[in-house]
Amino acid sequence: MDININNDLLSIMMLYSLSPSYENFRVAIESRDTLPTPTELKVKILEEADARGNDESRSANEEAFYSKKQGMTSPKRVEREIIDWTRFLSEVVYGVVLTVFYILKEILELVIPPKQKSLQGEHVLVTGAARGLGREICLRLVKEGCRISAVDVLQDKVVETVAMCNALRPNCAAAYVYDITDKKQIEAMVSDLDPVDILINNAGIVSSASILEVSEQSIQRMFDVNVMSHFWTIRAFLPGMIERGKGHICATASAAAFTQAENIAPYTATKYAVTGLMLCLREEFRRAHPEIKITTLHPFFITPAASSPEHWTVNSRLPDVTAVQSANFMIDGIKKEKVTVTVPTHLYYLLQLLRWLPTPAGETWRDIFYAKIDSIEKKNGKTP
């Protein structure tokens, strides 16, 4: 190793002070009657530098030597590769064993349901609580002994939901009117509410039309409500959950996130986005914050409530599901800490199976179990 050293004794000693053995060297020279000469210092520095770089240099030289020999690899590199492959294969075996275990566990839980956690006394925030699925979720939470904050932009309807809840159990629910697409209103909501234990992002809007017929305003509004609001509410309430060491974040997506259908491209895209968001949060939390749980609901087409406006008509060989049924699945999934909940349950496995089939085969089965969606707005002469 080439080192240029000034003959000045002080410079040499400063340079040598960078050595790991400086303390030993200092003690050695203090015990001498005279200071070492620059030549002695230079020799000592070079010895130290060579000692530190010896292993690295030998390894680099060895690699260079074997790289010149066609088809030869250094023994150390071979050893490293063997260790890496051994570790990888052991992890694969471990993964296979765990996979079999979890599959058997899922099957066993169908026969012997696991113990569910209690939601008694938990403060639950439900968005989109004015009607339909959001209202039914609130009513089911009353039976679980929760405190409910029902949020919606439709004041009369959300007040009606809260009145229904309080009729079942007095003073268990409160109504709040906020636009969850507005970050400033969400900040105000955080200030107004008690700490939230369970956040249920249920608010959503729908529209059906072909990609060229749907309006830009409709697309933007769907993404603001169905997707972006999830980001804003999660970012607002998650810090408190982490600080308290507990929390559960839930989202209403759709079975559309596992498949595709015509005339609902923007809506389906929002549900794919929500599904991706929740799965990524699961990956973040299972390592950094395992105390924060994630649940995503994927219902099939829900029969609209009498009080809800119709935005599409669905003609399908598979039956619709009800809001009550979907709400029960949601709450049961929270109590079991399920990551993915599909309504009905078997639909998840059927839709996953279609993904494994060749594209023409999957399209054939979608034609057999069709789900044709038509726009109500278009039929009424309105822009979707």
Automatic annotation (TrEMBL):
Keywords: Oxidoreductase. Signal peptide: none annotated. The keyword Oxidoreductase applies. GO terms for cellular component: lipid droplet. It comes from the Eukaryota. GO terms for molecular function: oxidoreductase activity, acting on the CH-OH group of donors, NAD or NADP as acceptor. PROSITE patterns: ADH_SHORT. Pfam families: adh_short, Retrotran_gag_2. SUPFAM superfamilies: NAD(P)-binding Rossmann-fold domains (SSF51735). InterPro entries: NAD(P)-bd_dom_sf, Sc_DH/Rdtase_CS, SDR_fam. Belongs to the short-chain dehydrogenases/reductases (SDR) family. PANTHER family: PKSB, RETINOL DEHYDROGENASE 10. This is Epidermal retinol dehydrogenase 2. It comes from Lygus hesperus. The gene is SDR16C5_2.
